[in-house]
Design brief:
The chain is α/β, with parallel strands linked by helices. Helix content is about 45%, strand content about 15%. About 45% of the residues are buried. The structure holds NADP nicotinamide-adenine-dinucleotide phosphate.
Length: about 300
Amino acid sequence: MILVFGGNGQLGQELTRLAAARGLPIHALPHSEADVADGGAVAAALARWRPELLVNAAAYTKVDLAETNAEEARKGNEIGPAVLAEACAGAGIPMVHVSTDYVFDGSKPDAYRETDPIHPISAYGRSKAAGEAAVRGALKHHVILRTAWVYSEFGNNFLKTILRLAEIRDELRIVADQHGSPTSAREIAEAILHLAPVLLRDQKLSGTYHFTADGFTTWHGFASRVVEIAAPIIGRNPRVIPITTADYPAPARRPANSRLDCRLFVQTFGFTPRHWTEGVDATTRTLVGAAKRMPSHVA
Ligand SMILES: NC(=O)c1ccc[n+]([C@@H]2O[C@H](COP(=O)([O-])OP(=O)(O)OC[C@H]3O[C@@H](n4cnc5c(N)ncnc54)[C@H](OP(=O)(O)O)[C@@H]3O)[C@@H](O)[C@H]2O)c1
């Protein structure tokens, strides 16, 4: 069975839902039941569930808050992965650890390969880079999966923010000089369930892979697509205006280029991601459809 930490996050929930739909044995532990930085809680969970594979979907993902809350970010993103990797090494099981495009500084003109040097420019990125290093140092049998711009039906994310703003504003001002691939947590869950049997079979498999949806856009392109799909359903069509990163100052710096080259993942695991618009369209339709079906007295 697969044991998931960070079970209430976007990826944790999609993994649980997808594995259940496929009849695969899985158990997901939310933060409230197991803090990944708590060695005792992690050891107890492994002793109780005796998994064949551990997936770390837990992370401190508040990119701006991490600038002033470095200790919490370090707990979730560096100490936690170290604790999990050591526990997996002790139990003799592999681990899938999820990481981020924010380990790069974004200065490369084209998509990042796994061999490109990392250079995080935010506290979040530094804590995730340290987490990757901790996993590599403690556990040989692992896959580190770097992804980017994650959205889903669950939790808080950019797609849901755009839908909320589209209901109340006539104009949305969105950053158009950062490039990346909006990736659905569902597709990352599919990729993990696809690689799991390969990792379980091959005791020597160990490495870092990039996995995002295919193609790329900007945050402005992402928002424009969400509004285009939602507009005929919600009966509102706000203007989406491109702005620059400098027009929208935030506590944490973000890479201008977040594009990840996923060829190595496709070659190794034989799973090809869909174009980013497919997932964005489907999730937008699901979310606006669900909102329409809600009785009017429900806020
Ligand atoms: N979201 C993105 O755009 C994005 C982009 C690139 C990479 N990633 C990576 O993708 C992975 C999944 O992200 P996601 O979007 O699913 O994140 P998410 O929705 O924020 O979920 C993360 C989960 O981890 C839990 N958590 C935080 N600290 C923890 C701790 N110390 N112990 C146990 N659980 C803890 C959180 O619980 P609480 O909320 O209760 O704290 C939350 O349920 C992460 O590794 C993230 O770094 C995400």
